[in-house]
Amino acid sequence: MGKLNIKIKPKHLVNYTIVLVMLLVGVVMLETGNLRPSIAQLFTQIGYSIILAVSLNFVVGFLGELSLGHAGFMCVGAYIGGLSAVLLKEVLGASAKLPVLIIAMLIGGFSAAIFGFVIGLPSLRLKGDYLAIVTLAFGEIVRNVFMNQKIFGGARGLTTGSLTYDTRRAPTLFIVTFIVALVMLIIIQNIVRSKHGRAITAIRDNEIAAKAMGINITFYKLFVFIVAAFFAGCAGVIYAHTTTPVLYTFFSYNYSIEILVMVVLGGMGSITGSIFSAMFITIVNFMLQSQLSGDLASLRNLIYAIILIVVVVFSNAPALKSFREKYSLGALFAKLFRGKLSDPSKRKDDEAKWDRVPTKIKMDALLSTDLNVDYTPARPEDVSGGKEGK
Amino acid sequence: MSDIMLKTENLGITFGGLKAAQDVNICIRKKQLYGLIGPNGAGKTTIFNLLTGVYKPTAGKFYLDGEELTGKTQEAINRKGIARTFQNIRLFNNMTVVRNVMVGLHNNPEFKCNPFVSAFRLPRHFKVEKAMRERAKELLRIFGLEDERNSLACNLPYGKQRKLEIARALATNPKLLLLDEPAAGMNPQETEELMDTIRFINKEFDLTILLIEHDMKLVGGICEELTVLNFGKVLAEGETKEVLNNPEVIKAYIGD
Amino acid sequence: MITLIDGLSLGSIYALIALGYTMVYGIAKMLNFAHGDIIMVGAYAIMVTLSQEVTKAIASINPGLVVYSPLLAIVLSVVICTILGILVEKLAYKPLRGASPLAVLITAIGVSYFLQGLAQLVFGSQPKPVGSAWKLPAIEAINKLGITTAAAVTLVCGIIIMIALTLFINCTRTGSAMLAVSEDRGAAILMGVNVNKIISITFAIGSALAAFAGMFYLFQIPNTEPTLGAMPGITAFTAAVIGGIGSIPGAMIGGVLLGVIEKFCLASPLAPYTVAIKFSLLILILLVKPTGLLGKVVREKV
Questions:
Q1: B178 CA to chain A: closest CA distance, Å?
Q2: What is the CB neighbour count within 10 angstroms for residue C106?
Q3: Is C230 domain-assigned?
Q4: DSSP conformation letters of C25-85
Q5: Is the per-residue pLDDT at A4 higher than 70?
Q6: Which among A191, A198, A291, C141 is least buried, having the fewest CB atoms inside 10 angstroms?
Q7: Distance from C282 to chain A by nearest Cα, in Å?
Q8: Who contacts B177 (Cβ-Cβ below 8 Å, separation ≥6)?
Q9: Is A313 in Cβ contact with C95 (below 8 Å)?
Q10: CB neighbours (10 Å) of residue B9?
């Protein structure tokens, strides 16, 4: 007994769709004249937050190295890309907005990538906590150095006023931002779903075994750091186009942590999660910023902190294991669609047992090959279990 | 071409003052099933770690198929043709069974595909992925794991995890396979099956196998020759039957 | 010379904080990212006790007591920090015992955010000066040499506290239990050590040290603000890592080293790059010795 089972798993397509939909909504609003400048700004912010969160997730969720210096890469991109944009603009003239932005983005991205290479090197020798502190140190060093360079405006910051996209007449920066986000998603997701992604997750799961399998650890660690840094740098260039002056204080380790919060909230190793939480946090930030002023703004940090603690404790505490199993999202969905909690004994092995997964990464659900013609012997669990696994 | 697959010359390593292995000379012929036994703490796993580059030997050299590999990195040694399993299983727990094996296939020249090709999904990417999956399935079939290929590795029962580890090591296309206590934690029936499988891959893949084992039934059943280690030194070596009846070996195992 | 003394005194503040990091790491195997913010809480405790309102309240009971209010401030700050340390451990970290280190680290970051946010909510983000009662008397003999009283007191007290801690760990039952837990938690449990209690004690001691550090810090910069603990916290963390996290003498050496380097940098033309230099030092040391100066090399069993 058996059946020809054609599985199409469009998980990664969901991510493209989300970004495309946002882009479309933005464009439609723009065309109909409903796009207020502040909303255009929000769209841009969402765009670069997505870029930052997903690229950090590539390092933390897939490679399994904790990086607390992601804002440092952004800082490099913002300063170097921002400055080159200002200079380019003088050369190419004010009308060449898009070429300036693209060239500046490449310059900023590649210079950040060079830093990514540099910070990737210690990751070859250091593990876990030690690497985390080194990445944090890196972010602070970058900030400190840029702060003291006259060419970048010193302590007053880099003036990028001439770049600021006039949100009233041409609020188009968000379009570019979402396109960059899309390109990044394509590249990162494709890599993750290839043999290279497997090698990267193998390093995360068991570095010793990965070495014994002949995986080139040096190459992949550097590769991941470089790719992530490149996109963080691009995000920095975009940021430089939205704000003037570009000030070193913005890129403190608090911002690195904010990006990390996005990754953690979305679930490490889940790109869709990162996208949603980047959207969510950016929108919440935006709303709180307009609602709360002065010291009440700290309420925001407080809310963050509480969400962060509760989410992490809830999803990781060994004592809450049974509670989690009962009320996990998967179980809730099953309940919604079937009107009853699924019978645990009937679950297929496919499902990640979260308590055994160190950082609760649901890699394999994400990595499933898109079009996969499989001849599988039909088992009763196959039909029922497959859905609950997600 | 000589007939020797693995040769170690006075291989040794010292940790601080402790000589964990000393003057170890092992010589394994091609396609041989060779056993490495000894009481606990005799330095068997240390030898494996030396042969796979986890530790750098402080003395001596070793050659695979006539090529010196002393001091090479783990990755390089694996690519030269030594694959291993671990005493405490080290699978990629959050990956499915089939993907575990596909990681083993990573460096196979047939499946070359650079990151750029993957990032933009050029046709080669799809070809390689499909071929890798097929090859992985074939390997899993040998170990009877085909039906579990989409389960997470950590959800397999213990015995199957051991088998998966062997399958994964085999995927790297080694000349020499090192098995570290492959039967540990298996029941007699599973051990029996494992023996058959080991014999099978030994024949089918023209593979030289060096294994550490405590189960004397398995050792006696499949190994052609043995080396016995005690306190980091070679205590005895030779034909399995002779060695197992050697009074010194019995003494080392049972004590005075 | 004066720079050296200043450096040593700043270094002993860092060392006190670093001790907290390192002890918690050694025993609970976690990075307590929120440790720096305990200093901040301690500083606020002092600030509140010495504020005009509280001073008035004390005076209304008995005007003679006002003289003792700095002392009260110190005691309160230590007590509050100790309780806070234990509380944080019980609420945020204990549920995660046995979970992945990354989860614990992120929770610690959350706690740090929380404390900063709370302080900002209650006290505002602007720096608040500590009352004028918080001043050390001038000591002629030292001040003539150009050394401030604050530096001298910090240095002396720092050394005393560190000696006391070393004695406590090496000569008491609790101390040896702590060492045992940091060496091998499983074995310690089997030997009947109450690991939960030991971890709580560790947090308590670490937080008390942080309170002292906050106190000395206020002697140097008599202002409190919500982010007060962040920079000394991270620097001390760096110091603990440089010294080899988990190692108590390492934390002291690392702290003093960083303090001296910072002061010398600030006195040199490289002053704007002080932060960069401190952190570069960390990276360099870790690249040469991945577990810090006195850290144990742990070989992963294969």
A1: 11
A2: 28
A3: yes
A4: HHHH-S--TTHHHHHHHHHHHHHHHTSHHHHHHHHHH-GGGGGGHHHHHHHHHHHHHHHHH
A5: no
A6: C141
A7: 7
A8: B82, B83, B84, B166, B169, B170, B201, B207, B208, B209, B210
A9: yes
A10: 16
Number of domains in chain C: 1
Q: Give the C-alpha separation, A116 to A165, whole Å.
A: 28
What is the average pLDDT across C272-293? 88
Q: Which residues in C have their CB inside 8 Å of a CB on B? A: 301-302
Whether residue C129 has a cis bond before it, omega within 30° of 0: no
* Chain A residues within an 8 Å CB radius of B137: none
Task: Classify C274 in phi/psi space as left (phi over 0), alpha (psi -120 to 50) or beta.
Answer: alpha
The whole model's pTM is what? 0.84
Q: Do domains B1-81+176-256 and B92-173 have the same CATH topology?
A: yes
Name the residue range of residue C87's domain: 2-288
Residue B190 has pLDDT above 50, yes or no: yes
Tens of pLDDT, residues C48-82: 888 888 888 888 887 877 778 888 888 999 999 99
Alpha carbon distance B222, A384 (integer Å): 43
Residue C275 lies in a domain: yes
Which chains are within 8 Å of C by 3+ CB pairs?
A, B
CA distance C199 to C30: 11
Is position C181 within any domain?
Answer: yes
Higher pLDDT, C78 or A361: C78
Any B CB within 8 A of A1 CB: no
Burial class (CB in 10 A: 0-12, 13-18, 19+), A328: middle
Sort out which chain A residues have CB atoms less than 8 A from C98's CB and list them.
318
CB burial of residue C141 (10 Å; 0-12, 13-18, 19+): exposed
Per the CB < 8 A criterion, the answer to whether C42 and C115 are in contact is no
User: CA C105 → CA A252, B201, C14, C93, distances in Å?
Assistant: 18, 46, 21, 9
Cα–Cα–Cα angle for C136, C137, C142, rounded to 5 degrees: 100
Answer for the pair B8, B62: CB distance below 8 angstroms, yes or no.
Answer: yes
A202 in reach of chain B (CB within 8 A): yes
Has domain B92-173 been given CATH number 3.40.50.300? Answer: yes
For residue C78, what is the domain's CATH number? 1.10.3470
User: Among A302, A315, A316, whose Cβ lies nearest the Cβ of C117?
Assistant: A302
Locate the domains of chain B by residue range. 1-81+176-256, 92-173
Which pLDDT tens digit goes with each residue over A9-42? 567 788 888 888 988 888 888 888 777 778 888 8
What's the CATH code, domain A3-315? 1.10.3470
Domain with CATH 1.10.3470 in chain A: 3-315
Portion of chain A with pLDDT greater than 90, in percent: 30
CATH topology of domain B1-81+176-256: Rossmann fold (3.40.50)
Tokens of A94: 């004010």
Short-list A82, A10, A15, CA closest to A278: A15
Q: For residues C217 and C228, is the Cβ–Cβ distance under 8 A?
A: yes
Segment B222-251, tens digit of pLDDT: 999 999 988 888 988 888 888 888 888 888
DSSP string, C173-210: HHHHHHHHHHH-HHHHHHTT--HHHHHHHHHHHHHHHH
Residues of A in contact with B128 (CB under 8 A): 195
The share of chain B scoring above pLDDT 90, in percent, equals 44
Give A99's Cβ-side CA count (13 Å radius): 10
Chain C's closest residue to A295, CA to CA, is C124
Residue A275's closest CA among C216, A283, C164? A283
